[in-house]
Amino acid sequence: MNKNETQNEMPIISQEELESLKQGLPQVPWIDNNFELINNQGVWIPESFLARILLIQRHFLARDSDLIITGIQKTGTTWLKSLLYTIVNRAIYPINQNPLLKNHPQELVYNLESDIYGEAFAYPRPQHLVELPSPRLLSTHLPYTSLPESIRTSNCRLLYICRNPLDTLTSLFHFAMSYLKNTNSKELLRFEDLFDDFCAGRTIHGPFFEHVITYWKMSLEYPEKVLFLKYEDLKDDPKHYLKRVAEFIGMPFTPFEESQSVIDQIIEFCSFGNMKELEVNKSGVINKFFEKKSFFRKGEVGEWRNYFTPPMVEKITKLMEEKLEGTGLSFKLVP
Ligand code: PAP
């Protein structure tokens, strides 16, 4: 345990301070007026996230042993949670006793801004973070520039996952629709409006490309600190990338494990088909409004083709080329 981890009470931010911080921040309606997004230090966030992000930035203390999954929404963090949890705990739980059989991945790998510093109370609160054994498996959707100082300067490791923007947006559309249905919102969402917002950078923790490119650059500069993964690569060659993950976290698969097909078993157990069919992932909600099953929808590469019109494809392809130029980063759009 980090010796500074002595916090006993839930930290708070006064309403007064919040109101004064919000004043002057750019604000736009999002998903058909169901949400207000505010722009805090160049990043779009729902208004309600400002307090929790400040709390994380001011109070979260990383341990050198923390393993933190990062990625903007809908890029595959649930999948990576299942994989990471299973890899880290493989010596403790045989596959047929894996706690993922009884818990949604989000209940085993806590998201800082929703599960811990959010308002849902179903999960450990910040003061419980100190009780979690090492290595703590955590996640966050925050862009690199919004991470608390202690994540950036400690030796904790970040596993970043990204996904091609077209499938990310398609996935977000369905997730937002499911949320709107569960909150009985009258106004439903039009794909073309979400598309326009996304292209203009207005998406939670967006702009999308800045989120991805910053972590990409950090992974090139500090490969021991940031592992950069792509959803499409994981689909194409899961064995190769599971080995990369295991090596990155300092728990490489042994020749004996390889001979026992441990990697293949983990891939199969965490596969979309298997996870979606587990009873625990079929009903119930997470953080009040999010149906557990909405985290396992299609799990495909290229589903965007059912939603994007040719002009939309042209616009986002051009944007992608502009943003990625010179970065060495590219996305696979179809299987
Ligand atoms: P989050 O941002 O709310 O945490 P996240 O898990 O990052 O969501 O992304 C969800 C996407 O990952 C969904 O994609 P889809 O809407 O296009 O279907 C979900 O189906 C997909 N997904 C979840 N688990 C897996 C898995 N085991 N294998 C492949 N894809 C998965």
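qc> Strands lie at 27-30, 35-40, 43-46, 67-70, 110-111, 137-140, 157-162, 226-230, 285-286, 290-291.
qc> done
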